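Q: Hi! New to this. If I give you a protein sequence and the SMILES for flavin mononucleotide, can you show me the bound structure?
A: Yes, paste them in.
Q: Okay, here:
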Amino acid sequence: MKAAIVYATKYGCTKKCAEMLKTYLNGEADILSAKSDKISLAQYDTVFIGGSVYMGKIQKEITHFCKRNLKQLLHKKIGLFACCYTPKDTEGFFETLFPLELLHHASYVTSVGGKMDYDKMNFLYRKLFQSLKKIDGFNEGFIEPEINAEEIKKLAELANMN
Ligand SMILES: Cc1cc2nc3c(=O)[nH]c(=O)nc-3n(C[C@H](O)[C@H](O)[C@H](O)COP(=O)(O)O)c2cc1C
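A: Thanks. Here is the predicted structure of the protein with flavin mononucleotide bound:
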């Protein structure tokens, strides 16, 4: 069994989650950037796909990767994850991030938490987030995210079960 972990990140948190996932896998795994258009999935029987979420959207490289490889992905064991502050049980959340067909085919779909990297954040993003925090109801419900290692372990289990 060989797994691919395809990720897209802005400030590095999703890459860190991909690396954690690799350490929890029993078998061989390659970590691949979704930015590369040279990814060949033929050698993998399990594919994990993860990206971070900004203003309700997953990284565009993930959307393109899923669309480009959809047919092939539907023949593999799939784990999907979002790196973000939205909790995994938020109704309708994943439907806005991944193609429905892939979502229904996936063995496990989750949010693995994240990190708000205020030091690395550029001016525009810091401003955007300040605006978000002014929206009624957002600030009250907002909890500073942390990486959820337990959810990453659960993702790994789907590949380790073989
Ligand atoms: C400007 C901004 C907008 C964000 N928008 C969302 C959002 O709409 N939903 C969400 O769940 N998380 C959102 N986040 C949280 C990021 O997804 C989170 O910080 C993630 O860990 C970033 O991962 P990365 O370093 O791999 O890009 C936002 C963060 C920033 C800075």
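A: Residues 2-117+145-157 form a domain with the Rossmann fold fold (CATH 3.40.50.360). Let me know if you'd like me to explain how to read the tokens.
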